Amino acid sequence: MAGKPVRHVNAIDQTRRMLSLVTYLRERPGARVEDVARAFGITEDELVSDLDVLPMCGTSFRGGDLLDIDTDGERIWWHNPDDVAEPLRLASDEATALLVAARAVSTLPGLRESDRQALLRATAKVETAAGEAAGASARLSVTFESEGGVFADVDRAISERRRLWIRYYSPARDEVTEREIDPIRLVSVGHTYVEAWCRRSEARRTFRLDRVAEIRILDEPSVPPEVELRDLSEGLVQPAAEDPQVIIEVGPGGRWVAEYYPHDSADELPDGGLRICLRTPDPASLKRLALRLGREGRIVAPPELAESARRAAQEALAAYDGVEAQSTQDNGIRE
């Protein structure tokens, strides 16, 4: 089912699907992956992604009674369905944590009113069952950081199929730009990102939520072109074979570059460093990496990028020299 046109699914819809998936798998031991994916209208890769999350879920916040679900790539097996079928009994600290989280989520901007009301009704039932623990939870609160508000707006825009306007900070260029984007999906790979069709560049782009300085949901409909959803199992950044090649040599203190940047090769150097060959659609963005490395690294090729990085380093040093000279002059005046 790879290559399926993009579908608009938000986090709440995915949660509903995963809850239904638990019931579905309980009734169908050894279900075939392709049959389950077809039944839920998702790709096999999306199903496997859900299955990676389910074993971290269960009936206890303390980590016990987790769902023991796995797959061999062809069939799905649930090994302990009876163990998690008993009625749920919450300890006081579990009830407190659940109530605090539920109240916090109910305040998120962009949450659909029907979902908010359903959450509040469920919260009221838990409060009744929790007894004294409910009183303790009322004295606690959680405030979401700005990324939470951005997440809610993106999630709502995906659900309502509406375009977004954002002010976005790009660290590679050290600039803030304004863009209109048609959101496609939310993804989490270390950080949370929105994959979208950018109307400024007329291409698919990925934006990290904590770098969104401002966001607005527009009245225009979101109509991204039909594109294949990328397989992110190998990471968010996946350079193309036609991207320009860059060679960087780093010392022992710069070996972390090979861990953080996708690369074609990383060969050992005599001094304990590495010669790293990587590809990027925007080689100029690596100048900031070269400045960050300092004595621990340098760009070797292409020559024009190496020269550009050298000039950037000289300009940075000149700026510091100017500050030092001014400071010396000021001290002389005071004396």
Order of helices and strands: HEHHEEHHHHEEEEEEHEEHEH
**Percent in strands:** 15-25%
General form: globular
Gyration radius, to the nearest Å?
26 Å
Largest sheet: 5 strands, antiparallel
Structural class: alpha+beta
In angstroms, what separates the terminal alpha carbons? 78 Å
- Kindly state the percentage of residues in helix: 25-40%
Total strands: the figure is 12
Unreliable residue stretches: 1-8
Q: What count of helical segments does DSSP give?
A: 10
Mean pLDDT, to the nearest integer, reads 76
Strand order of the largest sheet: 7-6-5-4-8
List the helices and strands and how they pair.
Elements: H1 11-27, E1 31-32, H2 33-40, H3 44-53, E2 69-71, E3 75-78, H4 92-106, H5 113-130, H6 132-137, H7 146-160, E4 162-170, E5 175-189, E6 191-198, E7 203-208, E8 212-221, E9 245-250, H8 257-260, E10 265-268, E11 274-279, H9 287-293, E12 297-301, H10 303-334
Antiparallel strand pairs: 1-3, 2-3, 4-5, 4-8, 5-6, 6-7, 9-11, 9-12, 10-11
Helix pairs in contact: 2-3, 4-5, 9-10
